[in-house]
Amino acid sequence: MRVYEVLFIIAPNIEESDIETLITQLSEVATNQGAQIARVERMGRRRLAYPVRKFNEGHYVVLTVEGSGAEIAEIERRMRVTDAVIRYITIRIDEDLKRAEKFRVRRAAHAAAAASTRRTRQTEPVLPIGRDEEDGESEEREGE
Amino acid sequence: MSSEPREQGRRDDRGGRQGGGQGGPARRFVRVRKSCRFCADKVDYIDYKDGRLLGGYIPERGKILPRRISGTCAPHQRMLATAIKRARNAAILPFSTD
After folding, report:
1. pLDDT category, B28, cuts 50, 70, 90?
2. Alpha carbon of A30: minimum distance to chain B alpha carbons (Å)
3. Which of A82-86, B35-39, B83-87 has the lowest mean pLDDT?
4. Are residues A44 and A108 located together in one domain of the fold?
5. Is A19 on the interface with B (CB under 8 A)?
6. Are residues A11 and A39 in the same domain?
7. Distance from CA of B83 to the nearest CA of A (A)
8. Residue, of B38 and B6, whose pLDDT is higher
9. Of A92, A111, A132, which one is at a domain's C-terminal end?
10. Closest alpha carbon within chain A to B43
11. What is the pLDDT of residues A56-75, one digit of tens each?
12. Nearest chain B alpha carbon to A88
């Protein structure tokens, strides 16, 4: 199974209610094809870095889609036809996420290993000191 | 104990000069070793949607800031470059500015 991030920009002159229906429509396209929408993120109205179809602003929406990949083609086809969507990009993120997870696990293992060596290193110099203290205590006890 | 950190500092300097290469004794840069910000922050994935983060790596012209200036390590520079290119297509970052 693959995870995709579908980011699209809706024209700024679209009503809020129409944006909602558009998002649900696109989500339904994906779910009807057998994909699952893991997350819908509204990034809100943002300035564009450069004009897109003569618009300087746009509503950013990010859908996280889990599926086989065939649904993406359908979503993209729908977005291409829809005039309200001025820009879209789909990015496959499951491989990147897996890689990030691997790094995280490796770092955790590394930290654990470092912690254990630190512990052994700490115990080494502590031991003679501990023994000295014990000696001192025993001497005191002998004195008593 | 007190001499230890000083020694480390000297070692860093030497590394920087080695990086300078065959400049010879005439060119004497005291190069401060830059460290990868993403390694320091333990970043595993650079999100292309984070325009504020990526914006720091594009100078006026809108180009991708080279590694030798930012000090980013190779793996992170690769991630950063991909993220910037994605962000450009999403109109989060400009392709060019003047």
Report:
1. low
2. 21
3. B35-39
4. no
5. no
6. yes
7. 11
8. B38
9. A92
10. A100
11. 999 999 999 998 888 899 89
12. B90
CB burial of B10-26 (b: ≥16 within 10 Å; e: otherwise) equals eeeeeeeeeeeeeeeee
Q: What is the ipTM of this complex?
A: 0.71
Question: How many domains would you assign to chain A?
Answer: 2
* Mean pLDDT, chain B, integer: 76
Pair (A73, A117) in one structural domain: no
The CB-side HSE value for B11 (13 A sphere, CA atoms) comes to 6
| A73-83 pLDDT per residue, tens | 989 999 999 99
- Chain A residue whose CA is closest to B96: A50
Of B45, B91, B94, the CB nearest to A9: B91
CB contact under 8 A, B93 and A49: yes
Cβ–Cβ gap A49/B88 under 8 Å: yes
| C-alpha of A32 from chain center | 25
- Give the separation between CA A81 and CA A25, rounded to whole angstroms: 13
**Last residue of one domain, picked from the residues A51, A77, A92:** A92
Whether residues A129 and A118 share a domain: the answer is yes
Sequence-distant (6+) residues with CB within 8 A of A32 are none
Q: What's the CATH number where A31 sits?
A: 3.30.70.60
Domain that holds residue A100: 95-144
